[in-house]
Specification:
alpha+beta, five-stranded antiparallel beta sheet, six-stranded antiparallel beta sheet, Alpha-Beta Plaits, 238 residues, 33% helix, Translation Initiation Factor IF3
């Protein structure tokens, strides 16, 4: 089947136009009602404003009282260390100690090296993010004192960082996305020999919180955050 010269030219122009629209961030262009739909991208690099650091420690032995006393001493050492690092009593939370008898478990094996295991936690909750980060890198004295630090989830130790001022940052981010979309639509209108008209509709889109390198695997582990949003706008063309 042969395609005529004119139809082939129309197809070629259509393919080229579609490629240009994608490259320029255009989502849709309709001649029938003279409108253009664009996506506005905005990114904002910010710092976390709150940190939560859980210091877990554990002990094991064959005497209940001995394990409990060791845990109590470890808790005092951790508490003292945090006070030395400049944290206030209001920023430090002491959790209750827990000691377990492995032989008392209904389905437990009777062959255990140490009968009693216990653990405790001291939690730092602070808006002084940098102070928490620095202290987390200075725990060597605790280890040298015999405190057996551990994380509940292996490989997940260290502070967790939050962005509690997220709502205060949203207007700025959405404003930048709107300006980005408006700029794209204005340039398209000028290239098409038209005038950009009124905004017909807008979709804010989902604001994503990423870590500072753009990954969203576990954003709580990095103090730096990157906010990203892609908003959709439809403008009339006059």
């Amino acid at each position: 089947m042969r395609i005529g010269v004119v139809p082939a030219l129309v197809i070629a122009v259509g393919v080229a136009a579609a490629g240009w629209l994608v490259g320029q961030g255009m989502e849709r262009f309709r001649m029938a009602d003279r409108s253009v739909t664009v996506k506005g991208l905005a990114e904002l690099d910010v710092k976390s404003d709150f940190a939560i650091w859980t210091l877990g420690f554990r002990r094991a032995g064959n005497e209940f009282g001995a394990v409990q006393r060791q845990l109590s001493a470890d808790r005092d050492r951790v508490h003292g260390f945090l006070l030395e690092q400049g944290f206030t009593v209001g920023e430090i939370e002491l959790r209750p100690l827990q000691v377990q008898d492995l032989l008392a478990r209904e389905w437990g094996t009777r062959d255990v090296a140490l009968r009693f295991t216990g653990q405790g936690q001291v939690v730092v909750k602070s808006a002084r993010v940098e102070a928490v980060t620095l202290a987390a890198n200075r725990v060597d004295p605790l280890i040298e004192a015999g405190v057996q630090l551990f994380a509940e989830n292996e490989g997940m130790s260290g502070p967790r960082y939050q962005l509690r001022g997220f709502n205060e940052l949203k207007p700025r981010l959405l404003e930048e996305a709107t300006l980005n979309a408006h700029d794209q639509a204005r340039k398209f209108a000028a290239d098409a020999g038209a005038t950009l008209g009124t905004l017909r509709s807008a979709n804010q889109g989902v604001i994503r919180v990423l870590d500072d390198d753009g990954s969203d695997m576990d954003t709580s582990r990095t103090p730096g955050k990157r906010l990203r949003v892609v908003s959709t706008f439809e403008f009339a063309l006059d």
